[in-house]
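re the bet — no i am not wrong, look at it urself. input seq straight from the record:
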Amino acid sequence: MKIRPALAAFACAVTLALSGCNLVGGSPDSSNATDKVTVTVALVPDPPGASQFYRQQFDEFEKANPGIAVKVVENPSDQQLNAVELMFQQNNAPDVFRAQDDGMDRMAARGWVAPLDEFVTPDFLKRFPAGSMDPATSGLHRDGKLMSLPLVWGPWSTLRVFLYNEDLLKKSGYDGPPKTWTDLEQMATKVTADGKGKYFGYAPTAAKAVGVEMLADTAVPYSVPATGIDYRTGKPATSSPGLLEAVELHRRMQAAKVMMPGWESWDGSRAFKEFAAGRLAMYPTPPWHVAEVRKLAPEIKMGITGLPVPAAGRGAYLPLTKSFSPLWSMSAKSTHKPESWKVMDFLASEPFHNAYYKKFGTLTALEGAWKSEAEKNPDQAAILKVAQETMRRAPNPALATTGGRAMTDALAAKPDLKYTDASFSSIIKNQPFAPAAAKLDQDLQGYLDKTTADLKAKGKEGSAKDLTFAGWDPLKDYTPGG
């Protein structure tokens, strides 16, 4: 019997939780020590090379903390939460684990995340940019308690850049990148034709056509592709013209065979490999791809710029909704909390952040660990420039009110109501997206109404009002209460 890849990955995660089959383990010197406290860290081995990096870093930590051994448990990124949940359910919980955004909230809702406030000192907080650890806006606090520590620079999680191969564009007569979606479609079409099967003009980054959301964020408020809701009105808005056109743009290019074949099954690393190999001329991407391209092709003439915008003009900026995204949490079930905190303190130290920056080219939460070097690096300077030019502060219902948290949690629990699957189907089947978008809006409204009624019946807050920021202009920085 064949086992589907996703099922096989989960089966491995189950086995891991029960028997430790995918343990990276501790250093050779620490594995036989009986007088040491073992801190188990569950993480995801990405970007490429992360397995070795974390083991080397924890070996250094163990040398400085001879009473602690660090055991690493690795899980595939798409099974991390399920695997960690199973570890908790089997009374084999990790002491420290990686959980981002909704994943951290999912763990916290089960009572599995320990607040960190008892360990935090004023000197610790000084490591981070001034004001970034304010409980109201940090993105790491829940009900005023610090529940997680970050790894990446605040804008890094939501920043998107546009990469282009200068040489391939010049072969087709273009001196620069596309400024608009119309330019993108025309340029990609010509580059693909000129490539004659050896290289292609464009790909939507990865399976599910994630590039759709990246481009849509220049046309509609970020909340529309992210949740299906327009935060200016609190109403379903998958049928927004900007999102519809982002999908239709990709549908047209797919039907015309402009996009690189096979993208429908790409994982998160395929695009930068194709780009580095000179087989892909342009694509939108998270900024971490930049360093991966450069590792594979140091001499490639890679342009880094902002995303192209609709021909009618920009409708929105990329969002800055909080200071940081959660990453590292401590288990509420840990019997070694002081030792676990030492590990977390290390993961939030300037030496670790500097090492991470040097290894992966990722701008991290501790700006002092990388900023002076980044400003001298052309690629990273370009990323900083794109962030400054294309990002603006945006409202975050989850941080604004208790009801907002309840509603965003409910939306996160129903990913099938997002545009993603329907738009992917539209693109690959060459079918108009508008009817599917209208149906999604109808279903989403019904779900919002039911969620509001359920919360009210339980005496809890949460309604469309908590998703509404009537004064917000997505072309300007959002000011709470302003």
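see?? The chain has 20 helices and 15 strands. told u. also The first strand starts at residue 23 and ends at 25. so pay up
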